[in-house]
């Protein structure tokens, strides 16, 4: 879709948040020893996936030495390994691994995007930085007209999705629905589905297992295409 491609090109040029610009570019210059031969991406992160997606996967931001290195969201780190393996088992990806741009990976009926488009220090964006990125998320989701469900990876993504739903003129409920793994918050223009973030902190401790991730993506498929 030309409009989606144009938006992604505009995202890459964004420099709204001085702290994030400085950090992402510093990481790209200094690199991690294991990746010293890499030419880091070091720019804001574009969305990735099927323009006709019915399932949106919403994360917080890409990792400093993952997506900030490879140029594709959830690519080049353990979180991405865990996520894409599950997406493949769910029939939403054509392969189980996401290594780098141009590796042949395609999503089928799914699209992945981050609430914050730059890798933040300590993985903690500020409220102002999230607000600066909100317009990109609104514009991108508006172009994904076939969406039926938003899978929120973690509480930050859940809160961002609730704000997004409100900004698009959708359902606003009080009190706000609380995030939880497998929790569904019905509403317009699409329901939200909570999932623990596939961070190493969660996957290494067993807070999120492959079976749990698969179950959530099974829920997402049911909501997107009908049980």
How would you characterize this protein structure?
- It is a single chain.
- By secondary structure, this protein is of the alpha/beta class.
- The protein has one domain (2-225): 3-Layer(aba) Sandwich (Uracil-DNA Glycosylase, subunit E), CATH 3.40.470.10.
- It is 39% helix and 10% strand.
- It is built from 8 helices and 6 strands, in the order ααββααβαβαββαα.
- The chain has a 6-stranded mixed beta sheet, with helices on both faces.
- A hairpin with a 6-residue loop joins β5 and β6 (192-195).
- α4 crosses α8.
- The protein is globular, with a radius of gyration of 16 Å.
- The relative contact order is 0.15.
- The mean pLDDT is 95.
Fold blueprint:
Layout: H1 2-12, H2 18-30, E1 48-49, E2 55-59, H3 67-70, H4 78-89, E3 110-114, H5 127-142, E4 149-153, H6 155-167, E5 184-185, E6 192-195, H7 200-203, H8 210-225
Parallel strand pairs: 2-3, 2-4, 4-6
Antiparallel strand pairs: 1-3, 5-6
